[in-house]
Amino acid sequence: MGLLGALARGLVRGADRMSPFTSKRGPRTYTKGRGAKRLGVLTSSRKFLLLRQMVPEFIVPDLAGFKLRPYVSYRAPEGSEPPMTAKQLFSEVVAPRIEKDVKEGAFDPNNLEKYGFEPTQEGKLFQLFPKNYVR
Fold first, then answer.
1. Of residues 51, 16, 21, 41, the one with CA closest to residue 33
2. Do residues 36 and 55 lie in contact, with contact meaning Cβ atoms separated by under 8 Å?
3. pLDDT band at 114, cuts 50/70/90?
């Protein structure tokens, strides 16, 4: 909706309806919130029960003695190398290992897990095949 459409809608429906709906404009019980996840349930007697299973648990590794910092400045220069494609990654990492095994006679086409091939995506956080293809 463009600027003219918004102005026309404001004139037709009234300017008051065009202003953002905040907790000041709603009833006393209305709280807008900021999209936070609820950590429990509200009972019928209007009491809040905190459920420990719903509280997020952050697992942070021990970074004692770690030389890198967690912050990257916006003034940092752009990376000089282009992003790596799947074909480049295969030709630089996996192909030499396969060629070496073929020359030695130890290559087994039934044991491709040795080179990082995964026949199924079960248990993966981001499953690549076949559900998540862009359609």
1. 21
2. no
3. confident
